[in-house]
Amino acid sequence: MADEMADRTLTPTHPLADRRRLLAAVADETAGAVRLELEAPVAAVDLRLDPRGTGPAAIAADLGAELPSEPDTWTAHPTGTALRLGPDEWLLTSTAARPEDWEFHLDEVAVAHGGMAVDVSAQRTSLRVRGAARELLSFGCALDLRPAAFPRGRCAQTLLGQSGVLLAAGLDGDVDDLQILVRPSFAAYVADLLVDAAAELVPQPA
Amino acid sequence: MQLITCPWCGPREEIEFSYGGQAGVAYPEHPASLTDEQWAHFVFFRDNPKGPFAERWSHNAGCRRWFTAVRDTRTYRFLSSPTSNPELTS
Ligand SMILES: [Zn+2]
């Protein structure tokens, strides 16, 4: 965002910035079995559209990629992801768009088809778990996260411990990973839960 | 813990859901014309069967959608595969 307004631009801080070191230490403690990383904030827009109407096709044309049609799945578009949250609800993220502009633009497209789009960039923050991600989350999540049941391309809103989370599988493609999107106010709880659970993955001396 | 089948998300743990009471209680067509007694019946009076009961459930921790399911009040077993809210865009 290098523009002439740079001096007035607020720089978002990750809600877990103060736990960065704690999370990074997990990789060493588990001998590389699992890695916890904070992800940079992205633009996020909540999209509501009648799935039977012309809206999804119009948004897809605008994004340059199809919206996910199956329940609880995500698809990639050129600058981010589209996650299907419900029959008439999608969460779109972008690493390139400016949140306010993107909301305005997507809302214009959606309104023309009886839908709407709302900027929710500040609603969730993101953690990425790499390595034994599925095993780690199984300590606090009731979903069957084995690759056969939760393969790359799946997403789900569920509970991790006591906190609501949105999970997405396999954003990296080749490497197995899970993305955890969580409300900023619950993020510290989730981070601590994961660090605690990671103790189970610390190799034991033979 | 028992699993409840959300029409959108599939089987999920019961704690992800919240209960919404009896299904099919229609809002009065002319609320202003109701007597106090009729209004009280609409607001407070519900069936309380021993056996199958059609209920509203909300998948709070998941897709946040409401759906109707039939549950046996004696065994707590869900009898029907739930049907989703026809008003998709509500
Ligand atoms: Zn659901």
H/E element string of chain A?
HEEHEEEHEEHEEEH
Give the number of domains of chain A.
Answer: 2
In the CATH hierarchy, the architecture of the largest domain in chain A is 2-Layer Sandwich
CATH overall fold name of chain B: Folate-binding fold
**Annotated CATH homologous superfamily of chain B:** Folate-binding superfamily
Largest interface: A-B, 19 and 16 residues
Shape of chain A: globular
The low-confidence runs of chain A, each spanning 5 or more residues with pLDDT under 50, are none
CATH topology (level 3) name of the largest domain in chain A: Gyrase A, domain 2
- Share of residues in strands of chain B: 25-35%
In the CATH hierarchy, the architecture of chain B is: 2-Layer Sandwich
- The total count of strands of chain B amounts to 6
Helices and strands of chain A: which structural class?
alpha+beta
Q: Outline of chain B, from the CA principal axes? A: elongated
What assembly state would you assign to the polypeptide chains in this entry?
heterodimer
User: C-alpha Rg of chain A, in Å?
Assistant: 18 Å
- The CATH superfamily label of the largest domain in chain A reads Probable tRNA modification gtpase trme, domain 1
Q: Report low-confidence residues of chain B grouped into runs of 5 or more.
A: 85-90
CA distance, first residue to last residue of chain B: 30 Å
